[in-house]
Amino acid sequence: MPSFPRTGGGRLARAVAPVLGFGLLIAAWQGGHHAYGPLVLPSPLETLRALGSLVTSGVAAQAALETARHALGGFAVAAVIGVGAGGLAGLWPFVGRMIDPLARLFLGIPSIAWVVLSLIWFAGTGLAPLFTVVVATVPVVIAGALQGTRTLDPDLAAMARAFRAPLAVRVADLYGPHMLSYLFPALMTAMGLAWKVAVMAEVLGGSPGIGEGLALARVNLETADALAWVALTVLLLLGVQGLILIPLHRALEPWRHVAPLGPESGS
């Protein structure tokens, strides 16, 4: 049976796979458009035109800034609280046992419930989307941080204490690097959830932002505009992940992004 060279095949596959995935999505989208019509599902081209109209009119930029303020502000607060709680749990197991049931409790509360409560508590203040993002995402970050501290080899921690390593050294060289393996997936999940919850709170609360544009598109039955707002949200999320979280992950854990040796790497 003939064999074919695989040199560079891994790189090619990694480059082609995302394009193929998006191509299949666009094809299915176009097929749905032909099946159900523009009122139910506008075509990708119609959605792109609607998005272009929102961008050129300046409406998209203003709404994106408001939603980004809600999503990124809430995410930043949740990240600080979650990482801090996880670090404390690693240093003092009693704190971890105290925080764990609270994190599980908050994870079980639906995001829509927090939206409704925040609209009651913060009506007229504009804080509802920000508060909803914080309470919806902080349990995700705490759960990841707790998992990272709990899976640390206790012998390593005991050895660090036996050699009287300073607290700063233990945090920077022991707890921190180990937590990163569990923390970054949690942060990526929390980032995606932050944008969803922010838009949801804006839709229901009438707050300025992408959610307000979605609500207006629903009232006017402008499905193309609604999909354009959704596309804008996804593009913003991918942009923030690609410009902030992924480069930060590469900087803190560069060894995870080194190409493996073998036929796929061209060796």
UniProtKB/TrEMBL annotation:
The chain crosses the membrane at residues 12-32, 75-95, 102-122, 128-146, 226-246. GO terms for biological process: transmembrane transport. Residues 64-245 form the ABC transmembrane type-1 domain. Gene3D superfamilies: MetI-like. It comes from the Bacteria. Its main location: membrane. It is a multi-pass membrane protein. One of its GO terms (cellular component) is plasma membrane. Keywords: Cell membrane, Membrane, Transmembrane, Transmembrane helix, Transport. InterPro entries: MetI-like, MetI-like_sf. It holds the Pfam family BPD_transp_1. It is found in: Cell membrane. Belongs to the binding-protein-dependent transport system permease family. This is ABC transporter permease. It comes from Pararhodospirillum oryzae.
